[in-house]
Specification:
Elements: E1 2-7, H1 19-31, E2 34-39, H2 40-43, H3 47-55, E3 61-65, H4 70-84, E4 93-97, H5 99-102, H6 105-112, E5 116-118, H7 123-135, E6 145-148, E7 154-156, H8 179-182, E8 196-199, E9 202-205, E10 218-221, H9 224-238, E11 242-245, H10 254-266, E12 272-277, H11 284-292, E13 295-303, H12 307-313, H13 319-332, E14 335-342, H14 350-361, E15 372-373, H15 381-389, H16 395-402, H17 418-453
Parallel strand pairs: 1-2, 1-3, 3-4, 4-5, 8-11, 11-12, 12-13, 13-14, 14-15
Antiparallel strand pairs: 5-6, 6-7, 9-10
Length: 465
């Protein structure tokens, strides 16, 4: 079958490599299909371009995958309109997937006129679904999908079982993508000449935060040997020198983190890398080993400095654990990433002041950080709570009315008014932005002194600073 996979435009100069599509592409290729990537993410084609492309080619399958979010939702609707406007629409099946549609497949089928929604891991599901489409059989035996049958009745098949040994999943189909473009993504601790690329160290998470809309349960790690094999290939084939571990939790335990790092050291990988981590595992001995293995940045989900709110979130963290972990990270020479959100259930306004103080105190100037309101994405416990309390009616209310921007309130779960929250967010984030800019100004002053007073011959021009 001939398949078009859409890497949608997120209106960024540089964008994230679409790992999910690349894994699905491998599954299809191994089934014997021909796969083409529509790289709207790189070339910023208008949506009408997609309609023209579909009008002038014969595809059997058109596929797109999106996460939850106001921008992704709006983009999916536009892409779906472009797909459905094709004069060849009756000649191909339109498949959508990802965390966004999976949380409420009936709603997304109705909004997009897609033929199928994929729910959960797609590597096996896509092969079984394509088999069923090819022989025009029923779809009720394909796990992990939703669709409207011939009687226009909604059907959701049983959940797709998770792939337990994820070492068995073939590597992504990198050859279909412009890797030289994606390797330009800049990250903390990266040099001007480093080439970066994402790798999964595992799938899932061992924790269950109330704002997370991940639908699968538990954590499934890849073996160190399997990860190292992928990294070595990326180094040799694409000259990648900075690895972005893009899964939710490389630091799934202290022991696993130590074992991985020892394997990286023994393999002499000689790459910089970053990961997402847990502050309750941020012991100095673990962090020192990570540093030795090449880690330069750990992105931490702090979320709040208010202990009562952390408990409501089910974060399994306290303020003391957070501070100790950040101090340990900085002390060993790894840059920490700070993610703080505001507005979980009954969170006090004073938490914003605590967040501001914390972010300024421990800022190593690797990134600009601001504080965003919490978003109750469909599929999360917080979304269910919002429905129960009457703050939201349903998925349509979330996407069409309430979730207009990630930096604006979707639902107010606190005892403060919206206006009080916005005034405080405005005040706090202005201070954080000014703090960031002030550091850049000081840096430029130092650059000037080094150039004109110290006659620094290594200077490459202010436009490169």
């Amino acid at each position: 079958m001939k398949i078009l996979m859409i890497a949608y435009d997120n209106e960024s100069f540089l964008t994230w490599f679409p790992q999910g599509l690349a894994y699905l592409a491998t599954s299809c290729i191994n089934r014997g299909d021909t796969v083409e990537i529509y790289q709207q993410d790189i070339y910023h084609y208008p949506d009408e371009h997609l309609t023209d492309k579909l009008d002038n080619a014969n595809y059997d399958i058109v596929l797109v995958s999106v996460i939850g979010g106001y921008y992704q939702y709006r983009k999916l609707i536009k892409i779906s309109n472009a797909v459905n406007n094709s004069k060849n629409r009756k000649n191909f099946k339109y498949l959508i997937g990802g965390h966004g549609p999976a949380s409420d497949p009936k709603y997304f089928l109705e909004k997009t006129s897609a033929d199928f929604v994929g729910i959960g891991e797609g590597e096996i599901t896509i092969k079984e679904l394509l088999d069923a489409i090819e022989i025009d059989s029923g779809y009720e035996n394909v796990d992990g999908i939703a669709y409207f049958d011939k009687d226009n009745s909604f059907v959701k098949t049983k959940p797709r079982e998770l792939i337990q040994n994820i070492d068995e999943i073939p590597f992504p189909a990198w050859h279909l993508f412009d890797i030289n473009y994606y390797a330009l993504m800049r990250m903390p601790g990266i040099s001007k000449t480093d080439r970066s690329f994402p790798v999964l160290s595992g799938r899932g998470c061992t924790f269950e935060c109330n704002f997370c809309y991940r639908l699968d349960k538990g954590f499934r790690p890849r073996s160190a040997d399997n990860i190292i094999k992928e990294i070595n290939y990326l180094k040799e084939k694409y000259n990648i020198s900075y690895i972005i571990f893009s899964d939710e939790l490389l630091m799934s335990s202290k022991q696993r983190t130590m074992d991985l790092c020892n394997a990286f050291i023994e393999a002499k990988l000689n790459v910089k890398w970053e990961c997402n981590g847990r502050l309750n595992y941020a012991d100095k001995i673990v962090l020192e080993k990570m540093k030795e293995a090449g880690c330069v940045f750990i992105n931490y989900g702090i979320e709040s400095l208010d202990n009562a709110t952390l408990k409501v979130m089910n974060k399994a963290l306290t303020k003391d654990i957070i501070i100790r972990g950040i101090e340990n990270t900085l002390e060993v020479g790894i840059s920490p990433g700070f993610n703080i959100i505001y507005g979980n259930i009954d969170e006090p306004l004073s938490a914003l002041d605590e967040g501001l103080e914390f972010l300024i105190k421990y800022d190593d100037h690797a990134q600009l950080r601001t504080i965003r309101p919490v978003t109750p994405y469909p599929g999360s416990p917080l979304f269910d709570y919002a429905i129960e309390k009457g703050y939201l009616k349903d998925t349509a209310d979330f996407y069409e009315n309430k979730h207009t921007n990630s930096d604006l309130l979707t639902v107010n779960f606190t005892k403060n008014t919206d206006e009080e929250i916005y005034i405080k967010l405005n005040e706090v984030n202005k201070k954080l932005i000014r703090h960031y800019i002030e550091y850049q100004k000081i840096n430029m002053d130092i650059e000037c002194d080094n150039l004109y007073i110290n006659k620094n011959t290594d200077f490459r021009g202010f436009r490169q600073s």
